[in-house]
Amino acid sequence: MSDSPSSNTPAARNSTMRWIPLAIVAALGVLLFAGVLLSRNPNRDALPSPLIGKPAPAFRLPVLHEAGRLVTDKDLRGAPYLLNVWGSWCPACRDEHPVLTRFAETKRVRVIGFNWKDEHADALRWLEQFGNPYLMVLTDYDGKAAIDWGIYGAPETFLVDAGGTIRWKYVGPLTDEVIQNELLPKLAQIDAKSASL
Q1: How many secondary structure helices (H) and strands (E) does the chain include?
Q2: Number of domains the chain is built from
Q3: Local confidence pLDDT in tens for the 197 residues of the chain
Q4: Does residue 4 belong to any structural domain of this protein?
Q5: In 3D, which of 89, 86, 94 has the Cα closest to residue 151?
Q6: Whole-prediction pTM
Q7: Contacts of 169 by beta carbon, 8 Å cutoff, 6+ apart
Q8: Which domain covers residue 170, as residue numbers?
Q9: Does 103 map to a domain?
Q10: Which of 63, 83, 128, 140 could make a disulfide contact with 69, Cβ separation 3.0–4.6 Å?
Q11: 151 with 78, same domain?
């Protein structure tokens, strides 16, 4: 009979069991790291919207600052608008806010807020603290309207033309570069098309 320990002995099993938690932690670390890399991917074309080129979904939503007022998708037609999805609970929205504020101050296009799954008082407090760049803020308290828009996170931004067709979508915080290289060219296309009609 051999004196070497068998792989079925309690000592060998204990030795193997010690490595299992470490292997699980390492695997979770790799998945987390991969998720961080994907979230920083500047190529947002990987997340195309099936709504581009289609009419904006119908909605009827309350206005944050005007109790009892409801606004529909049809009410916003007649001029292009930028619909910016945000929430007071969203850390990336705080990063985006100064960029969005500077852009809104140019009055290049109407900027409409889409406050998503937020508490009324929290949304008001957030805008008081950081400033309100929006012409108006629509509220989607239960998140049902967001489903029709294909919204799955915040911030997200949509450009809708005067006829109510979605022309552009951006997932993630707007930056000066995104506005300069993506949004402004799309607005120019909309303006050129309107001028040719």
Answers
A1: 6, 7
A2: 2
A3: 445 445 566 655 666 666 666 656 666 655 554 444 444 444 444 456 778 999 999 999 999 999 899 999 999 999 999 999 999 999 999 999 999 999 999 999 999 999 999 999 999 999 999 999 999 999 999 999 999 999 988 999 999 999 999 999 999 999 999 999 999 999 999 988 877 76
A4: yes
A5: 86
A6: 0.75
A7: 49, 51, 52, 156, 157, 158, 159
A8: 51-196
A9: yes
A10: 63
A11: yes
DSSP state of 182: I
At a CB cut-off of 8 Å and minimum separation 6, what does 124 contact?
64, 65
Tokens of 104: 């809104």
3-state SS class at 3: coil
Assess contact for 133 and 111: CB atoms under 8 A.
Answer: yes
Rounded Cα distance, 93 and 112, in Å: 14
Burial (CB count <10 Å: 0-12, 13-18, 19+), residue 153 = middle
Q: Are residues 33 and 81 in the same domain?
A: no
pLDDT in tens, 67-87: 899 999 999 999 999 999 999
